[in-house]
Design goal:
The chain has about 180 residues and is mainly β. It has no helices and 10 strands. Strand 6 and strand 7 form a beta hairpin.
């Protein structure tokens, strides 16, 4: 176990017993029409371990993760895929004895990442696609704690809880070849 809650000056790695971990997941997939489907998933993971001498939730891990997927297809064989990923707050390790310079909260916020893709098969071996990832431009700011002082013992780049990239737009062509 890597303990990032103890102190920023060193990395404490140790083996542990008594870690509590359980998970449950529920999925629902519905075909609304022959050209429309819908999927909802929810996963709950409880993971508790001894860190900094306390029984704490695993850092930087969302206990609740939800996924929503909508897939549509029209008669001309255009396909639209919408994907929403919802993440619950993640515990951010303290890793700092200097509480006055603490730049991060104890937990990240809830956040949702939306992705959209449009694609079309023109021939058996040719597909064009376009999409947008992270439509809402959700990203974590202040990725590095105490970033203005790299020589500080509280300089810390290990508390990244969310997306570091903003919105991304892409366009592509996919060619498929059969084996000879």
């Amino acid at each position: 176990v890597t303990d990032r809650d103890d102190a920023p000056e060193y990395l404490l790695i140790s083996s542990q017993s008594g870690i509590i971990n359980y998970a449950t997941q529920a999925d629902l997939t519905m075909t609304l029409h022959k050209r429309a489907s819908f999927t909802v998933s929810h996963r709950y993971v409880f993971n508790q371990q001894t860190l900094a001498g306390q029984s704490l939730l695993q850092p930087l891990y969302s206990p609740h993760r939800m996924l929503l997927s909508v897939n549509l297809k029209n008669r001309s064989n255009w396909m639209l895929d919408l994907l929403a990923q919802v993440n619950s707050p993640k515990r951010i390790p303290n890793g700092s004895e200097d509480i006055t310079s603490k730049e991060l909260d104890d937990y990240s916020p809830w956040y949702t990442i939306l992705n959209l893709q449009l694609r079309k098969n023109f021939k058996k071996h040719l597909e064009v696609y376009s999409g947008v990832e992270n439509i809402l431009n959700v990203r974590q700011h202040n990725l590095v704690r105490n970033a203005n002082n790299i020589n500080s013992p509280f300089f810390d780049a290990t508390s990244v809880w969310g997306s570091t990239n903003g919105r991304t737009v892409y366009l592509g062509i996919r060619l498929s070849f059969e084996e000879l």
